[in-house]
């Protein structure tokens, strides 16, 4: 049981830490083509299409799936431009 307690504490810590970064998710609406790939790949359902463009909510967990899968490099986290996209 101690491992479960530690996991719970880690999850709480990570959630609180990630919440401090949710305002760092930026979508360049000039680059966004509204393909929906980001929304489809977001495990937190933080992204949705609004008026034909991607829009972010406040539940980002910083998984970078939206950044790595955006074909137009329109989404950034903790930076002003996408330097490299990773595919794993």
Beta-strand percent range = 5-15%
Radius of gyration: 14 Å
The low-confidence parts are none
Write down the CATH class: Alpha Beta
What's the count of strands? 4
Task: Give helix % range.
Answer: 25-40%
Can you describe this structure in just a few lines?
By secondary structure, the chain is α+β, with helices and mostly antiparallel strands. The chain has helices at 2-19, 37-41, 65-69, and strands at residues 26-27, 47-50, 53-56, 75-76.
Task: Give a written overview of the molecule.
With 88 residues, the chain is α+β, with helices and mostly antiparallel strands. Helices cover 32% and strands 14% of the residues. The protein has a two-stranded antiparallel ribbon. The model has no long low-confidence stretch (mean pLDDT 81). The chain is globular, with a radius of gyration of 14 Å. The protein has 3 helices and 4 strands, in the order αβαββαβ. A hairpin with a 2-residue loop joins strand 2 and strand 3. It has a single domain, classed as Alpha-Beta Plaits (2-Layer Sandwich). 14% of the residues are buried.
How is the secondary structure organized here?
Elements: H1 2-19, E1 26-27, H2 37-41, E2 47-50, E3 53-56, H3 65-69, E4 75-76
Task: List its salient traits.
alpha+beta; two-stranded antiparallel sheet; 4 strands; Alpha-Beta Plaits; two-stranded antiparallel ribbon
């Amino acid at each position: 049981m101690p491992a479960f307690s530690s996991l719970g504490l880690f999850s709480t810590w990570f959630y609180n830490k990630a919440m401090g970064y949710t305002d760092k998710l930026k979508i360049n609406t000039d680059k966004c083509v509204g393909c929906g790939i980001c929304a489809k790949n977001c495990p937190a359902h933080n992204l949705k299409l609004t008026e034909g463009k991607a829009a972010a909510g406040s539940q980002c967990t910083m998984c970078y799936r939206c950044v790595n899968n955006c074909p137009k490099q329109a989404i950034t986290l903790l930076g002003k431009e996408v330097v490299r996209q990773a595919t794993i």
